[in-house]
Amino acid sequence: MKTSQAIRTVLNNATETLNVLISGGLIDYSEGAKLEKIIQLKIRQLITFPATIQPLTAEELLSNVPWLENAKNQINFIKSKAKILVFDYGDIICTEGDMPRGIHLLVSGLVKLYGSNPVFGHNKDFYDQEEAKLGGGKIPFTDYRGSGAILGELNCLTKHPMEVTISCETLVQTCFISINDLFEAFDAFLEFPSLEYKIWLTIAIHIAVNTFKESIRYQNWTHNDIYSWLANAYVEDIEINKKFVIYDGTMDDIVLVYGSVEDCILKQVYYAPCIIPQTSYQIQATTNIAKILIVPSVLNKTMKTTANWRLVEKVNAPCLQHAAARRKGGKCHRKMRLVINNMSMQQTSESTRLERFTDGGKDKPSNLLKADLP
Q1: Do 85 and 170 fall within a single domain?
Q2: Average pLDDT for residues 225-238, to the nearest whole number?
Q3: What pLDDT does residue 179 have?
Q4: What is the helix, strand, coil percentage profile of the chain, to 5?
Q5: Cα–Cα distances in Å, from 70 out to 73, 75, 81, 151, 313?
Q6: Sheet strands (E) in the chain
Q7: What per-residue string of b and e applies to 113-136 under the rule 16 or more CB within 10 Å gives b?
Q8: Which of 64-78, 116-130, 335-349 has the highest mean pLDDT?
Q9: Based on the structure, what is the number of domains in the chain?
């Protein structure tokens, strides 16, 4: 019953959103009618909704992992290396302080994560001191994960000990990928975006979403608004002895997702996870591994491509109603705008030529130059 009500709520929200997009001109009327027909069909199918839903298999869950999506070769490689493990109620999958042995993808069941509040690669002694000042002692951490969750991916990337203990609350089935097989996959898929980069990007976005929610500036943003804001974000490495320039006009937001960095001018140290203020200009890492998530500026059109990032230039998409009119041979104001822009560019170039010719008013332009001016 709860699942049926949740589906109906999602479909109702989809209908309202579709009407807003149609009225705003972002979706053509004919395309909107087709989408509305699909939504209404799903609402009618909800009447015969089954009492139970068959859970996804391990292969289907692997295909839905964010850092394996639409990558058939990588999915097939992971399938060939993965193993199915079964744990009974009360079994311990891993213990706090143990070295990571691999990644667990939960196929079915429920697990409990508990231990000290996880740190993100920075100085743990400093972190404990700050916690002692706030409330005295370490802050306990408890969380529960269900089917589809991934356990241990961050520790495998950094090769740091596990920070939590994972125990089984029910009969648990996991798809296990050993750390050796994971690094073998990293070496096999180095072409951008590499498998390792995609895992880091997935983790960074997850950390950044929680960080934005705790910021006063983004308190009125919804969960979907934050994910849309981070749609074109990318991850960069910060080196210890090398200065990295930030907020140079190509960045709107920078989130420190792992490690710690120091402001080279203000000498202020920032610890993950946090949003680096826009008053900073240059930073350098104070830990061996430091990762930042950069939200590129939408207004910037001349972003340079780095070795870790290839981002397609983001431009404003035209209204689909006007696009449909152009396909049908109708009139469109885009051509008029292009003509006006060309005329303004021509006037600007002629004005520049006139200023160069006059040289501060000493020489007068010829009649021929006057005739050429629009």
Answers
A1: yes
A2: 92
A3: 95
A4: 40, 20, 40
A5: 9, 9, 19, 21, 22
A6: 83-87, 92-94, 102-108, 111-116, 140-145, 150-151, 164-168, 172-178, 234-237, 244-245, 251-258, 260-263, 269-271, 274-275, 282-285, 291-296
A7: bebbebbbbbeeeebbeeeeeeee
A8: 64-78
A9: 4
The predicted pLDDT at position 334 comes to 42
Q: Residue 272 falls within a domain, yes or no? A: yes
9 is in which domain, residue-wise?
2-48
12 and 68, same domain (yes or no): no
Identify the CATH number of the domain in which residue 106 sits.
Answer: 2.60.120.10
Amino acid at 277: P
- Per the listing, tokens 């391990």 go with 58
State the amino acid at position 23 in one-letter form. S
**Integer Cα distance of 227 and 295 in angstroms:** 11
Q: Inform me whether the pLDDT recorded for 72 exceeds 50.
A: yes
61: number of CA atoms within 13 Å, CB side? Answer: 21
What are the φ and ψ backbone dihedral angles of 53, each rounded to 5 degrees? -120, 130
Closest CA to 17 of 326, 228, 208, 295: 228
Per-residue pLDDT at 353 = 45
